[in-house]
Amino acid sequence: MYVFPRISLKPGVTEHLKSVFLNKEVLAAVGHEAAESRFQKLLSCLSHPPSYTCVRASTHLASLEEIRHKLGEELQNQMHSLPVEEVSLQILLHPLIPDVLLLPVIGPRLVKQLSSEVVVSAQCGSAVLRGAHVFAPGILSSPKYMKAGDEVSVFSDLEGKCTRGATSFQGRKVFLGNGVAEKDRSSIFCTDEPAKGIAVRMVEPLYQSPSFAGVLPSLAFLQNLPSVVVGHVLGAHPGERILDMCAAPGGKTCHIAALMGDQGEVVALDRNRNKIDRIHQNAQMLRLSCVKAYCFNSTQAVSSDPVQKTEGPPFPPESFDRVLLDAPCSGLGQRPIMASTWSLKEICSYQPLQRKLFRAAVQLLKRGGVLVYSTCTVTLAENEEQVAWALDSFPCLTLQPQEPHIGAEGMLGAGLSPEQLRLLQRFSPELSWDHTETTTPLPCRASTDTIGFFIAKFLKK
């Protein structure tokens, strides 16, 4: 069986992460050997995709069973082009999350490498491992005379050292599977306009999972399981006013609006104008009229004018019943990540920004309101340490139980009590890494074989 290398990180980042996972509290609780083992499993599992694809069903538009049936028909049609032995399609229900469908990912599979090689960026490579085809902007290198119809092996550049337009690459790379070119080399690299569309259609991927390009866009939304859990944990009710502070591209925003039955108001903020357009498009496609999106820096979202009458940001203090702060973070929980070229300074740069956003969130939240803080990273500084800081800085906040709570508890190392750690939800795929290739039924392991993610829920007294 082909096994990916561990995630490639800069040495300083690796040592920093190791110090996090082997901190004094952890070592005192479990010992050096167990802590070291967990850290090594983390480095291994981050470069592999989860063993399933998670789809959030738009159950405000159709029943889960109806969406499941339609999705099955769409994907079965897509898979007719595959060899008979490759066609294996299951769509399973998550046992605890009522709007989630699970599709098994088959792999890593034994695939023979070809002599013609295409090299793609690490970001493109991660998408291929989740079932995507290779789009033209992601290609860095291709054979000199590559023509549409050629069979090629696809590799991911691990260190970001492949020069765009190269005809070959001898640096560190990892095999992703085989595909058929849909564009000539000249149409990818030798055009005035940036190349668009599928450039290599994957036919023998190392990890077999359906491509969702254009599949039921209003009914089936690709979203990592912990991101779906966040919407349920927030617990918004019809008629409430909700703020999503860092909302783009709007997956969680639209989920919250759907869970409210499109009754109330969901305000979405993001600094990027193009991403705001994407939120509007998603809300329109999902037929959600209660979403209002604004291009605005959420650190400045609190107005000093208590009688402000304008509709958009900034807002007067205590304007919202619930606030979601899905904070910008180092992203070290995303899977698969085969390589990160970020420096330690970049990895550690998010804590101050997260605290600025958190202060604004607390001010904008009504008394008796709920604040949910989440990240897709695995560091203590951005997760449990932020919770400890928040509880110390804002006596009005108390941690609350989460429903559903399908992840692990918080990690030791930030000085939080056992009771506080149990109220936190940390999705830690390394804890079950030994068991992901067993005969355990997929729905039973779907809650553990996830991306790395963190959720804290607060009540403002």
What's the arrangement of secondary structure elements?
Layout: H1 11-21, H2 24-30, H3 32-45, E1 52-57, H4 64-78, E2 92-93, E3 100-104, E4 117-120, H5 122-129, E5 134-135, E6 139-141, E7 151-157, E8 173-181, H6 185-189, E9 198-205, E10 220-222, H7 225-234, E11 241-244, H8 251-259, E12 265-270, H9 273-285, E13 291-295, E14 320-326, H10 344-347, H11 350-364, E15 365-375, H12 384-393, E16 397-399, H13 418-423, E17 425-427, H14 442-445, E18 453-460
Helix pairs in contact: 2-3, 7-8
Binding site for S-adenosyl-L-methionine: 246-252, 270, 305, 326
Active site: 376 (nucleophile)
InterPro entries: MeTrfase_RsmB-F_NOP2_cat, MeTrfase_RsmB-F_NOP2_dom, PUA-like_sf, PUA_sf, RCMT, RsmB/NOL1/NOP2-like_CS, SAM-dependent_MTases_sf
Structure in a nutshell:
Pfam families: Methyltr_RsmB-F. The chain is α/β, with parallel strands linked by helices and 461 residues long. Helix content is 28%, strand content 21%.
Note down, in words, how this protein is organized.
The chain is α/β, with parallel strands linked by helices. It has 2 domains: 89 residues, Roll (Archaeosine Trna-guanine Transglycosylase, Chain: A, domain 4), CATH 2.30.130; 237 residues, Vaccinia Virus protein VP39 (Rossmann fold), CATH 3.40.50. The chain is built from 14 helices and 18 strands. The strands form 3 sheets. Strands 11, 12, 13, 14, 15, 16, 17 and 18 form an 8-stranded mixed beta sheet that branches. The chain has a 6-stranded mixed beta sheet with strand order 5-9-8-7-4-6, with helices on one face. β2 and β3 form a beta hairpin. α2 crosses α3. The chain is globular, with a radius of gyration of 23 Å. 46% of the residues are buried. About 1% of the residues have low confidence. Keywords: Methyltransferase, RNA-binding, S-adenosyl-L-methionine, Transferase. GO terms for molecular function: RNA binding; RNA methyltransferase activity. It holds the Pfam family Methyltr_RsmB-F. InterPro entries: MeTrfase_RsmB-F_NOP2_cat (IPR049560), MeTrfase_RsmB-F_NOP2_dom (IPR001678), PUA-like_sf (IPR015947), PUA_sf (IPR036974), RCMT (IPR023267), RsmB/NOL1/NOP2-like_CS (IPR018314), SAM-dependent_MTases_sf (IPR029063). Belongs to the class I-like SAM-binding methyltransferase superfamily. RsmB/NOP family.
